[in-house]
Amino acid sequence: xxxxxxxxxxxxxxxxxxxxxxxxxxxxxxxxxxxxxxxxxxxxxxxxxxxxxxxxxxxxxxxxxxxxxx
Length: 70
What we know:
The chain is built from one helix and three strands, in the order βαββ. By secondary structure, it is of the alpha+beta class.
C-alpha cells in the first residue's frame, strides 16, 4: 500500500534473456536514484498482447517494480 512504481516495456518473446536486460535497466536506474529504494516483494509483468494472435518478436511485456521513498 502506498508504493509507487516504475515501468519499462519490453518487446520480444516472453521467455528470453533479452527481457532480463529490461529488468537490469530498471535496477540500474534505481541504483543511481538517491530518493527511492526498491520494494523487493512487489514486481509485476503485464502482458500487453497474446501469443495466439501476435508474433513472438512483437509480444510486449510491461515490467513494473515498486519503489518507496528512502
